[in-house]
Amino acid sequence: MDSLSIPGAWVHTPQIHADPRGSFLEAFRASDLVAATGHRLELAQMNCSVSTRGVLRGIHFADVPPGQAKYVICVSGAILDVVVDLRMGSPTFLKWESVRLDEESRRGLYIAEGLGHAFLTLSERATVVYLCSQPYAPSREHGVHALDPSIGVEWPVEGAPILSERDAAAPTVKELVEAGVLPAYSECQAFYASLR
What we know:
Elements: E1 2-3, E2 9-12, E3 17-19, E4 22-24, H1 30-37, E5 45-52, E6 56-62, E7 70-76, E8 78-85, E9 96-102, E10 108-111, E11 115-121, E12 125-132, E13 141-143, H2 165-168, H3 173-179, H4 185-195
Antiparallel strand pairs: 1-2, 2-10, 3-4, 5-12, 6-11, 6-13, 7-10, 7-12, 8-9, 8-11
């Protein structure tokens, strides 16, 4: 697994074994994640999302602790997956990084608790599967508007992206800071240490 520029995010590029029958790969290996993060991903829930071109989901995050770590793969089609550092006090606060996930490279992206997650569908249709460390808990789930200029994600979409009502109504970073909702970097670091 290769670390991204945002601490807490890693990308896994699997070795694909192909022959005339098709292909085989190891999309996720717990031992590789442990080597990268120092802890296991406790699987609590697996989500599957199917989206059409131009659909933008996120930026989502959860209260830490316990937060919600995610391991994301695109099993069909292609997406631009984006990680945003939403941890107040982090040296990379509000920095974002994108990774193309698609059915050809079969890469996976691990996103630690406290980081924001979003993706844009690049193909006509894409199916995304993500393993989650915690089940969905509406009272602990939050969103940041994906088009907030203070983050400035460069979404490669013609025209306006397609957002859910919830994501379209998501607050800005400024509003979340004023409300005291964003996770603290120090609390996230303490939580990561507790997982080891």
